[in-house]
Write a structure and sequence with these properties.
The complex is a heterodimer of chains A (231) and B (494). Chain A is α/β, with parallel strands linked by helices and 231 residues long. Chain A is 35% helix and 26% strand. Chain A folds into two domains: 154 residues, 3-Layer(aba) Sandwich (Rossmann fold); 71 residues, no CATH class. The termini of chain A are far apart. With 494 residues, chain B is mostly helical. Chain B folds into two domains: 228 residues, no CATH class; 232 residues, no CATH class. The two termini of chain B are 32 Å apart. The chains are: A alpha/beta (231), B mainly alpha (494). At the A-B interface, α2 of A face α12, α18 and α23 of B.
Amino acid sequence: MIQVTDLQKAYNGVTVLNIPKLSIPHGESFGLVGNNGAGKTTFFRLILDLIEATAGEVEIDGQKVMRNDAWKSLTGSFLDEGFLIDFLTTEEYFTFVGKLHHKSEGDISIFLDTMKEFFNDEILGSKKLIRDFSKGNQKKIGIAAALIGEPNLLILDEPFTALDPSSQIRLKRFLNDLQTRKNITMLISSHDLNHITEVCKRIVVLEKGKIVKDLQTNDETLNELEAYFAV
Amino acid sequence: MLILNLVKQEWKKSYRAQGFYKNLAVSIMLGLFALYMAVVLLVLGFSLNTILEKADSKLNPMELFNGAMLYIMLLGLTFRFFMQQLNTLNLPPYQVLPIKRSTLINFLILKPLASPANYFLLLVIIPFAIKSVAGYYSVAVAFRFVLSFVFLVWFDSLTAALLKRKFGSGLLSFLLIILSLGAVVALEYLKVFSLFEFSRVLYDFIVLKPYGVIFPLAFVSIAYLFNKWYFSQNYYPESFNRKMKGDRTVTADLSFLNRFGIIGELIGMELKLILRHKRTKKILYMSGFFLLYGLFFYTNKTYANSNGMSFFVAMFVTGLLMIMYGQWVISWDSSHFDSLMTQNIPIRTYLNANYYLMIAFNVLCFVLTTPYFFFGEKIIYMHLAAFIFNMGVNVYLLLFLATFNTKRVDLSNSSAMNYQGTTYKSFLIVLPILFLPMIIVGTLSAFISLKVALWTITLLGFVGIIFRNQLITICVNQFNRRKYKLAEGFREGE
């Protein structure tokens, strides 16, 4: 699904990301962990063609992402608030995104019904604009919008932070369900080692822009990661 | 002492803001502009006596000016109502400190009076008072004349702030004010009630009698007390915000746009953006004023005789919204740029949506400016040529050049003279769009004929309309080249 070759990103001559080779097969749930500044968000932005790679390239489904529009219909993503259009109401926003993926009003309302539990009755039905929602609820809106186009690839940056405990558990259940039911490829970054090992089948550790560990998740993975990050 | 501290902190707030130094070039240009205005006003001040003496009237210059005084007050009030930014000290951090309430309130009310912009017109008043009033009457009268004008400025400033706080600057108050101004002018014109006469008698009395200035001072005090009363009723910030929450639900029904597919959705989104942010709404209101620009120029003989200048005005009014909105055409989306770039929107579609929006603005402005056709045949041809040129050339120029504006635009900031997000590049963008056609028309009509000049402009426009697809492709390529610079610039807050 994603093919990374010789990818490098440097700012003012300082290399912040250097991934010689990485391939993420279709249907894999891929977790990315690393301390602040390890290059997680940079990597995501490179995949989404929001910043220009210094060298190398990323392909989604055989298509180079750089200055290309083709991958956009396959991909759902939410990195930060910049991915929301915050002067719309939630309904307007979901309709807008849905229409971009050629969904009908009916499709969209069916989709929103499936999100009901995740939204916990706080998101829909009010005339509130997105900018007036709390950070946690904005995150829920962003995640839902990323899913509305039934993407083959889902990219989420720190989806668990700012969510309340119940929502974290709901989100975990929801993501696991998506994998088994729809076989979506997922890229998720997180600081929470517990959550990420529960959601992802493969976990990659980034440090200072380099891949230092590439693990298939098993019973020992959590301990191994905790040992790695222990100071 | 405390007030001094508050002033200091406000000052710190402005120069510690990021971007204060970055915008040096812009500040210098604005400074030069202010200097130019100052010189113009001074010259006006010194020549006003001669101008008014020539007027066809038995009244002397000061009496004439006094007659205009209440008009100046009303116009000033209107202008301030829309332009003056409310002095909003961010109250909550101060509310918890042991500072007396009344100190804070006085600061909020009185600080705008210290703004030098208020006293700009004194550059006209003082020379006029020295040259004319002192000559016709005495130095004491001249002094009272100036003083009464200062009081008028204070009254305007305080009243405008009060009205704005109380009623907000929505479309309704805009219409109300325009209507009442129109009513006053109509009454004067139909000789039912002359505000001019009333104003002349009132201000002659104020200026000539030694105790006359007490009256305007009393009005200033009343305005001040009203302001104080308003704050005593609404001290807590939440009561300010209540109104804002109310009008959030304004959702224009734009569902008719659905028929146009993704482009329609995008245009709908841009329209909502315009209608739901203070800064963009302000641009709409200001455009309303600017549409009247032609009234000043087409009636003025020196400008009307210069073909280049007339065409400049024609292009400005027929392309008003497109130019005002279009120079920021990509920057408006800066806060959600990442979203648009990762959603299922091909770049071409995105630019096409903005293109059609600007075309719609063009058609709207062209229709709204058709009353100018009464100014004669020449204006009709000029407007038609300008309209075609805007549709065929300027649209693409704006789409192309807007990719150089890489600064994040803060949409919630409302002040009319808002230069946040402005760099020297913004000026460079507008220059060719406004002045190039003016130069073309000016030179061609001087050396050949106006007819040839306008046909050249029109043909250029038609060529642009015919090669629409190719020109959009150029804009798409340019956008793709600049995409990362844009995304990076927009992600950086101020």
